[in-house]
Amino acid sequence: MHEVNNDTWRVAVVGSGPSAFYTAEALFKAAPNVQVDLFDRLPVPFGLVRGGVAPDHQKIKSVVKVYDKIAASPGFRFFGNVCVGRDLHVADLAGRYHQIVYAYGCESDQKLGTPGEELAGVHSATEFVGWYNAHPDHRDRTFDLARAERVALVGNGNVAMDVARVLLASPDELAATDIADHALATLRHSRVREVVLLGRRGPAQAAFSPKEIEEIAELRDVDVVVSAADARLDPLSAEWLARDGARSQQRNVKFLQDRAALGPGTRPKQLVCRFLVAPTELLGDAGRLRAVRVQHMQLVADADGTPRPRPAGTSEELAADLLFKAIGYRGVPLPGVPFDEKKGIVPNVDGRVVESPGGAVRVGHYVAGWCKRGPTGLIGTNSLDAKATVEGMLADRSAGRTLPAKGGDVTELLASRHIDAVSWHDWQRLDAWEQEQGRSRGKLRHKLPSIEQLMQVVRELRG
Ligand code: NAP
Q: Left if phi > 0, otherwise alpha if psi is -120 to 50, otherwise beta: which for 370?
C-alpha cells in the first residue's frame, strides 16, 4: 500500500474482470497518487477470464499475468467477497470515493422468447459455461448429457464454439485443465454425438472467429459438417462479402465451403453447421425437450445494403435431446445505478453514467466494459474501452467534477458490518493453493465451486 493522504485520488471499481483491471491500469499510468479499490461479490478475481473463458483455452486465461502486474501497483486494493448492492451500497461508495466505475459486466443471458423455452433440457450457454468453470452461481445446474445424443445450439458466436467444443471434446483432453470436477465427471458419462449449430443468417455472417471453428475441426473425434446447400452463398451475401466482408468472414466462408466439399466425414462425433434457420418453437414430451421447430430465413438487403434475415415462409422440425442458447449475454441492474432495460447496459455517454438514456450525467459515476457497451468484443477490446472511460475521468477531475470523498476508509465500514473481505494477499494464497491442489490431482488448478468453500480455505490459509 502506498501512503494515503488528503491529496489521494480515490476510485472504486465495481467488478474485477478485464475491464476493471484495464481501468486500474489506465488510472495508475495517468496519476501517481491514485488509490484504486476493486470490489467483487465473489472471493476470487478476474470475472469472465476465470468464469467464462473455456478451460482448454489456457493461453487466453494467461492474460491474468498482466492483471497480476497491475495488482502489484502500490495504489491497488482488492475487496473480494463484497457484494455492492448488498454488503456495500452505492451511496456508501459515493461518500468515500471521488469516482466510481461500474465494470461488472453482463451476468445474465438473452432470452429466445419462443414457446417451450421453459422445458427441461433447454439451457443457456451462460449457465453451462459457468458450470464447467466452477462459477459459484452455476455449480448446482444439471445437464443431462448421459441421455442426450443430439444437441441443438442456437447462435454461432464464439460462446457457441466454446460450448460445442466442451460438448464434443474427449473428456481426457479437458481433464488436465482447470475444469470443474463436477463438469468433468458429467462429461465422462456424456453420450452427445452430434451438435447442430443453428445460425439465423448465412455462412458469410457467422459470428464465430475463424480460429474457433477451425479448432473444432482439429478435435480428434470430431468432423465439422456442412451441407452444400448450407455453405452456398445467396447472391446478396456474395456481393456483400466481396464489397464489405472482413477478412475473417471471407476465411469463415472458405472454411465452410471446403468442409462442404469434404462431405459428412467418418469421425464418431459431428458439429453440423446449419444456416438461415431460426427457432420459433421448442417442442416437448412430458415437459422435456424433444425437438426444435426452426423457420427458414432468407437474407434481404436493408437500406444500406446489409443482408438482414427475414422468414422465408417454410419451416422444419429438428429432433434434439438438449438445447443450448448461445445468443448473447445481458447486463443486470445494480441497485442504486441507472439501467437501460432496452439495451441491458448502464446508460452512459462515453463512459459517463447518465440517469436515463438521454438524461443528465451523474457526476462521479462511470462505466467500463460490457456493462458500458454491451457483450461484444474480445478481452483486449476492454483495454481501449477502459482507457476511453479513464480519459473522461481525468478530464472531469481536472475540471473539479468529482464526488467529495469525505467519508473514512471503506475498510472501517466493512469491519463495522462484519464483512469478511478477501484481500489481494488472501487471493494470492488461495491462487497458490488452487494450483497446488490441482498439481496433486494432475490438473492445472483445482477450483472450489462455492463461496462458502472458497472462504473456508481463505480463512484457513490466513492461519
Ligand atoms: P455474439 O458473438 O454476439 O453471438 C451471438 C449469436 O447469437 C449470433 O450468432 C447471433 O446471430 C445469435 N443470436 C442472437 N439473438 C438470436 C436470436 N434471437 N435467435 C437466434 N440467434 C440469435 O455473442 P457471444 O457468442 O455470446 O460472444 C460474446 C462476445 O465474447 C463476442 O464478442 C465473442 O467474440 C467473445 N468471445 C470470444 C471468445 C474467444 O475468443 N475464444 C470466446 C467466447 C466469447 P446474429 O449474428 O444474426 O445476430
A: alpha
